[in-house]
TrEMBL record:
The keyword Transferase does not apply. The lineage of its organism: Bacteria, Bacillati, Actinomycetota, Actinomycetes, Pseudonocardiales. This is Ceramidase. Signal peptide: none annotated. The chain crosses the membrane at residues 20-37, 49-70, 76-95, 102-123, 129-147, 154-171, 183-202. Keywords: Membrane, Transmembrane, Transmembrane helix.
Length: 211
């Protein structure tokens, strides 16, 4: 397994080489617990959202304590799973598509990622990979607003995501002046993003009387 040194805070190879980056993953776990206990998501498709949110946090924690190619793949992989599953849920619960048709958003998202890849490659610090999710989030917020469905949480999440992506991108450029880096801000703000989009879907399903 290759050691991965990708962030400003990394001080060495040990478990505590990225203390703030590691501890800040607690934000994902807190968000997941709040979703589960406060909003009690139903049915299972939406109940999966806080579970996936917690797994995003745990995978990120594993990467920022054991930084290698396997934990890096888990970190990126669970984020991708959350994004894709959320888009499928949006198609089903917001747009009213059947589950089979809802899965068509996965290849649609792949096309979006491919089309925006040249622009994404211009964004430094590896943050370009999150351009497609940002554009997808803005799109679903607009779609929800146009359809007069609950959209404020989605719009707020898009705004927070812009800030969190900026914070992530500044990690290396600010390293000389801010040795702890800024990546922990990405974790904290992204926990807010995932909480908001999950809450939006859970609330919408409940208010629409579709348990």
């Amino acid at each position: 397994m290759d050691h991965v040194d990708a962030y400003c805070e990394r001080l060495g190879i040990g478990l505590l080489a990225e203390p703030w980056n590691a501890v800040s993953n607690a934000a994902f776990l807190v968000a997941a617990v709040l979703l589960w206990l406060r909003y009690r998501p139903r049915p299972r498709s939406l109940r999966a959202l806080p579970v996936l949110l917690a797994l995003v946090g745990l995978a990120s924690l594993s990467f920022h304590t054991f930084a290698n190619t396997i934990t890096n793949a888990a970190d990126v992989g669970f984020i991708a799973v959350f994004v894709l599953w959320y888009l499928v849920c949006f198609a089903h619960w917001y747009l009213g598509f059947g589950w089979a048709k809802s899965w068509l958003v996965v290849p649609a998202f792949a096309v979006l990622a491919a089309v925006t890849l040249p622009l994404a490659n211009l964004i430094p610090g590896g943050s370009g990979g999150y351009l497609a999710p940002l554009l997808a989030l803005i799109t679903i917020a607009v779609v929800a607003a146009v359809r007069r469905q609950p959209w404020t949480d989605l719009a707020a999440a898009a705004v927070v995501f812009v800030v969190s992506l900026t914070v992530r991108t500044l990690d290396q450029p600010l390293c000389a002046d801010w040795p702890s880096g800024t990546h922990y801000g990405w974790h904290t703000l992204n926990a807010v993003v995932l909480f908001l989009v999950s809450r939006a879907a859970i609330r919408h399903a409940r208010e629409a009387g579709r348990p």
